[in-house]
Write a structure and sequence with these properties.
The protein is built from 18 helices and 13 strands. It is globular. Bound molecules: iron/sulfur cluster (SF4).
Length: 458
């Protein structure tokens, strides 16, 4: 009973977060930067910040995450971090030879007020950035937003610094995949390939943070969108932004900068959201849906109907990132589960709440942004117990105390593996989710069944 002191009674809080339901902006910025081939993320702040960002990603992916830091000490904290960053840029290009350095700010460098555009220009003017190499940056103070908004800011920065528009149009579409796993990015690309569509996806962490062990050290693994691909995104015919919170800003900027029209879709998690993704691809790229995808879809529908009796009226509580929560809520409502609570520490705005209500009904209790933390999520659960919890590793304490099965989705997952390799997006991902849900429900039924009802066939 680690959380035995959580009271049932909910008091209004304004200036206190207890166990946040999010991580800090730079973690998302670092993750996005890794989705650019040959890119070295750089944390402009103290070593402690960078160590935390790297360890969060390393623990989640079980892969060493490379990143550098401006190594602020007292001097930089007082006089600003310009000298540190200019020297860091010089050292990094000399020693590690990346194609791109992606700098994100931290709480400290933002409070000091370091002007990253000016510092990068100074490094350029002093010849610290070799020809053909790039330095990009995103402002990611962590006293606002979350890892999702940090991801969004770095993706936007890729468009700002790297995308170019010429007067020719390239027969390709852009896909901005949102804050999803490398396995999900790979699955989204596979669906696009199956439909015979040419696409540029950025960021793309597949083949970077889930790369194979081959006995050699690769400072820059094979995966990731190349600078050339992101450059050509300005000449694409269309952009599909998956997930409003993580992807809208970059798609909007590409439209403003290069007049590439865009559409925002929910993350393709679950049947309906994947249908919508496939249908939008079909319409915008003038492609047809191949038999192979139709067969995958049919398998999802088959499992939904075969096992519907186990899903029906089960109560669920969700905590995580807004874009994933929207699609998950839709999928769970579609299989006739009752969504009791939806909590995200990311400030996702009124549209998020409206969308969740549309999907799950007025009875769902929603909390987002400031004050929407694991403590509040636990209090909700104490006021009405769900049958299942969906959330990241931190939800395991609540799940254990309340004796409720936990289905791990989202970020971070430190205590299980699989998310790196097996997607939850697309039709295959929907099947995997259904399997996870069913296994949790049936394991619990087996555990609690009296001897006379302990079934062999379920
Ligand atoms: S100080 Fe700010 S940027 Fe650094 S780890 Fe903490 S929350 Fe993140």
């Amino acid at each position: 009973m680690l959380l035995r002191h959580t009271p049932e009674e909910i008091a209004e809080r304004q200036a206190l977060t207890i166990n946040p339901a999010k991580t800090c902006q730079p973690v998302g910025a670092m993750y996005a930067a890794l989705g650019l081939h040959g890119c070295l993320p750089h944390s402009h702040g103290s070593q402690g910040c960078c160590a935390y960002h790297r360890s969060a990603l390393t623990r989640h992916y079980k892969d060493p995450i490379m990143a550098t830091t401006s190594s602020f000490t007292e001097g930089a904290s007082v006089f600003g971090g310009q000298a540190n960053l200019v020297e860091a840029i010089n050292n990094i290009f000399t020693i590690y030879a990346p194609d791109v350095i992606a700098v994100h700010t931290t709480c400290l460098s933002e409070v000091i007020g370091d002007d990253l555009t000016q510092i990068i220009n100074k490094a350029q003017a002093e010849g610290k950035i070799p020809k053909g190499k790039r330095v990009i940056h995103a402002n990611t103070p962590s006293f606002k937003g979350s890892h999702v908004t940090g991801f969004s800011a770095m993706t936007q920065s890729m468009v700002h610094y790297l995308s170019e528009c010429t007067d020719r149009t390239v027969d390709q579409i852009n896909i901005i995949p949102g804050f999803v796993e490398p396995s999900d990015m790979e699955e989204i690309k596979r669906i696009v390939r199956e439909m015979g569509i040419r696409a540029v996806m950025f960021p793309d962490t597949s083949g970077v943070v889930n790369s194979p062990l081959d006995g050699k050290f690769h400072m820059y693994p094979k995966g990731g969108a190349t600078v050339e691909q992101v450059r050509s995104a300005g000449d694409s015919t269309f952009t599909l932004a998956l997930g409003r919170t993580a992807s809208l800003a970059a798609a909007k900027l590409l439209d403003t900068k290069c007049k590439v029209p865009f559409e925002v879709l929910d993350l393709p998690i679950g049947l309906r959201a994947t249908d919508s993704f496939v249908d939008t691809l079909r319409k915008t790229a003038g492609a047809s849906v191949p038999e192979s995808l139709m067969a995958e879809r049919g398998q999802v529908v088959d499992m939904m109907s075969d096992m519907h009796q186990y899903f029906y009226r089960k109560k669920v509580a969700l905590v995580g990132d807004p874009d994933q929560l929207v699609s998950l809520a839709e999928f769970l409502a579609d299989i006739d589960m009752e969504v009791l609570y939806v909590v995200t520490g990311t400030p996702a705005g009124p549209k998020f709440e409206r969308r969740i209500r549309e999907l799950t009904g007025e009875q769902t209790r929603i909390a987002q942004g400031l004050g929407a933390d694991m403590f509040r999520f636990h209090q909700f659960i104490k006021n009405g117990k769900p049958d299942l919890i969906f959330g990241n590793t931190y939800a395991k304490y609540i799940a254990r105390d309340e004796d409720i099965p936990l289905i791990r989705v989202g970020f971070p997952i430190y205590d299980r593996v699989g998310h790196q390799y097996f997607p939850i997006t697309g039709y295959r991902g929907a099947l995997r989710l259904l399997e996870k849900i069913l296994n949790a429900i049936l394991d619990r039924q087996d555990r609690d069944a009296p001897e006379e009802s302990f079934e062999l066939v379920m």
